[in-house]
Structures are given as C-alpha cells and as structure tokens.
From TrEMBL, chain A:
PANTHER family: TRIOKINASE/FMN CYCLASE (PTHR28629), TRIOKINASE_FMN CYCLASE (PTHR28629:SF4). GO terms for molecular function: kinase activity. The gene is dhaL. Pfam families: Dak2. Keywords: Kinase, Transferase. Residues 5-195 form the DhaL domain. This is Dihydroxyacetone kinase subunit L. It comes from the Bacteria. It comes from Streptomyces olivaceus.
Length: 199, 328
C-alpha cells in the first residue's frame, strides 16, 4: 500500500529530476516552442517540494492536491494549469484514505489524465504530454517500471509527429522531427514514481 | 544581455517601472501593475496580462483610457490565475471586469481559471480573446490564430469605452468587434534570445528572413532569402488582405519586434502605405513603433483594423499610459 510519505517522495523525486533535466527540457522547447519549459517546471516543482516540507499533508490525496495547487500558482503557461490539474484531479480521485493501492493510484491517474485531455483538448498523437501519460497509465497495472518504460517510449514516439496542440502547432510540418518537451517532462514525472517506490 | 541573472529579469523590470512611473501601483512580489486611482467608480475595469518580453505590452498600457491592471508572467510564459484574481479584485468598482486574453493555450487556461475564481469572489467577469495573426491558417490542426498586434487596438478602444462609462456588455462587444476586424502578419530578420536560454531560440542565418512569425521566438511558416522593405511590405499587407476585406478605413499598426530601429520602421511604413494605396485600402490613422515586441527580435508586423466612426472616436480619445499617450 502507498501512504502519504510515498506521495511526498514521488513529488520530491520529480522535483529533483526536473531540476537535473531542466536544461534539456528547455533545449527541446527551443526549436518548436519558446525555450522555457525547463525553467518553468523547475520553479514549479521547487515550490511543490517547499510546500510539502512546510505543510506535510497527512493523506495521499492531500499531498497531490497541495502539489497541484502549487503548480497552478507558480508555473504559468500551459504547463501550470495542465500539470496542476493532473495532480489535483488525481489527488481528488484518491479520496481521503491514509493509504491507497497501486490499482487505486492507476485508476485515479486515469481520472487525472482525462481531466488534462478535457482541459487542453489534446488527443493521443497530437504531440503533447498526453502521448506519454496515456501509455503510462495503461502500464501502471503491471508495475512502476513498466509505466516508466511506456512513458519514455511514448515520449520518444512524439518525434516524428506533427504537433496539433500548443505552441509547436504553429509550425505545422516543421514540428516534425523534434521530440515534444511536454511528453518528455511527463515521462520524468512517471519515472519519479518508480524512484519513490524504490524499485 | 543587460541583466543581473535570468531568474530576476521580470522582478527587476517591475522595480524599475515602479521607480519611473509613480502614477502606477506596481506590486513587484505579486506581479500586478495597477492604475493608482483604481477602482474608478462607475467604470468597467480592463485587466490583461501575458508573458513578459513584449514590452510595452501589457504593463506599459496601464493608465486612464486603456488598461486598469496588467499581470506580467515570466518571459514568454502566461501569468498565473492568482495574479489575475488579485488584479481583478484591486480594480473592480462593481461595474465588472473585462479580461483581454491573447489566444495562446497557456493564457487561455490561466485566464479561464482566474475568471472562475474571481466570479466566486463576486466579481462580474467577461473575457475577450484576441486572435489576429493570419500566419496561422490551419486552425483546425493548431491552437488557433495567435493574438499579436490587435491586442493594442482592443486594449485602447475598449479602454476608451470603459473610460466613457459604457457598461460591461457594451465594452465586451466593442472589444470583440475590434478583434474581429483586425488581422496581423509578422516578419523576423533575426531570432530571439530568451534570458533563460541565453542563445537564439532558432537558427536564422544573416541574409534570410522568416515570414509569418509569432511574438515568442517561435519560428515562422516560411523562410526566404532577404527581401527589400518594399517586398516585405507587399508580402505582409497581402497576407493580411487575404483574410480581411476592408470596406471602411483602417487603423494601421506598423510594429517593431524590438531590435529594428525606428528609422527602418518608418521606411517600412512608407512602403506599407504605398501598398495599401495600391490595393485601394483607405487609412484612417497610423501608429509606428515598438508596441508588441518579442525581446531582441529584429523584424516588424503589420496590423490592420477596420473601423467605423464610433471606433475611430474611441481610438482618438485621450489616453495616458507609459507606452501610449495622447490628448491628456
């Protein structure tokens, strides 16, 4: 079973990973975006880590709700509302139990990902974070390692796609051949789950 | 770059703005720029915002006759809902607030969230989306046309209507009409360097230009060998006129992207006026300068807005902001 401490570890690992990879995310965002994805997420997840340390919420749902609110209040751009909604809605779906099962987490994440799809209007294949998140949620029933691998594969598979949402979409055909920064950061978030589980 | 560290460029600029413009209340910590006399009794309040890097848009357009408040985000990044709610609460006189939102995914999502939160606090909120950039043609498969130069027309004309005391639904309808009558097209002669990255966001060799660029350093739709000012004016005006057939006189904005000298912009305007004359488009007013910029990008955009007598009167009405000032 997964307790609040697990979810705090997840968010802390995500913050560390985003911090390590920030320059790479910004570099991916340069040819098809506006070169700020890494610095924006770094600022947001640093705020998440600081808030969790200060408030120490007692349930998995409350940890993710707090993390989501922090992202919405600090990131800006499209990633702030999208990642913020992902965590808030996942947290809400987890309810107020002190522990949740991996199956419950997979179910709640599916609710969160659906909320992101509704908010951003993106479908799989549009070259967005959805392309990493959907396969990850599908694989989560198997293991955290399988989810990580699926997210990574989904992010890598965005390279040949033509962007249909977000700022890269303005490039039309010229967005082809570039890996999507949002799918790449989403894969980092999923990989942090495995790290939190200590697998 | 003339900065201290990339992390503080926005806060540093706001502190400098506060020092230069005592008529504005600049909240550096919460990133809100407000007219010092707000809320103004009986007047609808206009709130806009967006990523930083487009100065004087939006903070430089705060003042009597234009915006009531502006929310600057990080460079090229939409502000967060907390800023917009704070701004709305500071300027609402009870007559309601109009959010002026440029059509980018981030801006739309954050302003939508802010509108909901502000309404929860009892503030009446209307929104107008600015989407004037004709370079984005395939709107079914993109995030839709971008908001660029027309933002200035919307903020000026709706701001004048609010200053006259017109009610929220009228100010909103006017803002929408200005946007619908406006189209823009931009050209870059150099790429843009953001403080976070420190190097150009795309590679544009000397001797080439990008047609159909946005205002965030995103590359355009097409790259060509360098053209003359006259050829660029023809390309830009004709691109705008493929999507706008003015039967009335137009407002013209010849807008610099940040690194193109006024000498070149005025020369470019002469060519734009020539092409408009050849295409039979009557010009009511022209504004030339750096208004909706993209950091250190060289290049220019052309925005046309079809107007009538009412809109022209509102355009000519007095305005007093750091970035646009006449009649008062």
């Amino acid at each position: 079973m997964l307790d609040a401490e697990f979810f705090r570890r997840w968010m802390t690992a995500a913050a560390a990973s985003v911090d390590r990879e920030a320059d790479r995310l910004t570099a991916l965002d340069s040819p098809i975006g506006d070169a700020d994805h890494g610095s924006n997420l770094r600022r947001g997840f640093a705020a998440v880590a600081a808030a969790l340390e200060k408030e120490a919420p007692g349930t998995p749902g409350a940890v993710l709700a707090l993390a989501g609110r922090q992202l919405i209040s600090t990131v800006g751009g499209a990633s702030g509302p999208l990642y913020g909604t992902l965590l808030r809605r996942t947290g809400k779906a987890l309810g107020d139990g002190a522990e949740v099962s991996t199956e419950q987490l997979a179910e709640a994440l599916r609710t969160g990902v659906d909320a992101v799809r509704t908010l951003g209007g993106a479908a799989p294949g549009d070259k967005t974070m959805i392309d990493a998140l959907v396969p990850a949620v599908d694989a989560l029933g198997e293991s955290f390692a399988a989810a990580r691998a699926a997210a990574e594969e989904g992010a890598a598979a965005t390279t040949p796609l033509r962007a249909r949402k977000g700022r890269a979409s303005y490039l039309g055909e010229r967005s082809i051949g570039h890996r999507d920064p949002g799918a790449t950061s989403a894969a980092l978030l999923v990989a942090a789950l495995e790290e939190a589980a200590g697998e | 770059m003339l900065i201290n560290v990339p992390e503080t460029v926005v806060a540093d600029a706001l502190r400098g703005m506060a020092a230069a413009h005592p008529e504005l209340a600049v909240d550096v910590e919460n990133r809100v720029v407000v007219r010092r006399d707000a809320p103004v009794a009986g007047q609808v309040a206009l709130v806009s915002g967006g990523g930083s890097g487009h100065e004087p848009l939006h903070g430089g357009f705060v003042g009597p006759g234009m915006l009531s408040a502006a929310c600057p985000g990080e460079v090229f990044t939409s502000p967060v809902p907390d800023q917009m709610v704070r701004a709305a609460a500071a300027v609402d006189s009870g007559a309601g607030v109009l959010f002026v939102v440029k059509n980018y995914t981030g801006d739309v999502l954050n302003f939508d969230m802010a509108a909901e939160l502000a309404e929860d606090e009892g503030i009446q909120v209307a929104k107008v989306l600015v989407n004037d950039d004709v370079a984005v043609t395939d709107s079914l498969y993109t995030a839709g046309r971008r908001g660029t130069g027309a933002t200035l027309f919307v903020e000026k004309i709706a701001g004048a209507a609010a200053q006259e005391g017109r009610p929220l639904e009228q100010v909103e309808a006017l803002a929408r009409r200005v946007n619908e009558g406006s189209r823009s097209f931009g050209v870059a002669l150099s790429a843009v360097t953001t403080p976070a990255k420190g190097s150009p966001t795309f590679d544009l060799p000397a001797g080439e230009l990008e047609l159909g660029i946005g205002i965030h350093g995103e590359p355009g739709r097409e790259r060509r060998p360098m053209m003359t000012s006259g050829e660029i004016a023809e390309a830009a005006v004709d691109a705008v006129l493929t999507d706008l057939t003015p039967r009335n006189p137009v407002l013209v904005l010849v807008n610099g992207m940040g690194a193109t000298p006024l000498l070149e912009l005025y020369g470019f305007n002469a060519e734009v006026q020539r092409v408009l004359g050849e295409r039979g488009v009557a010009v009511a007013r022209t504004l030339v300068g750096n208004y909706v910029t993209s950091l250190d990008m060289a290049g220019a955009s052309v925005t046309l807005c079809e107007i009538d007598e009412d809109l022209l009167g509102l355009w000519d009405a007095p305005v007093r902001t750091p970035g646009l000032r006449w009649g008062m």
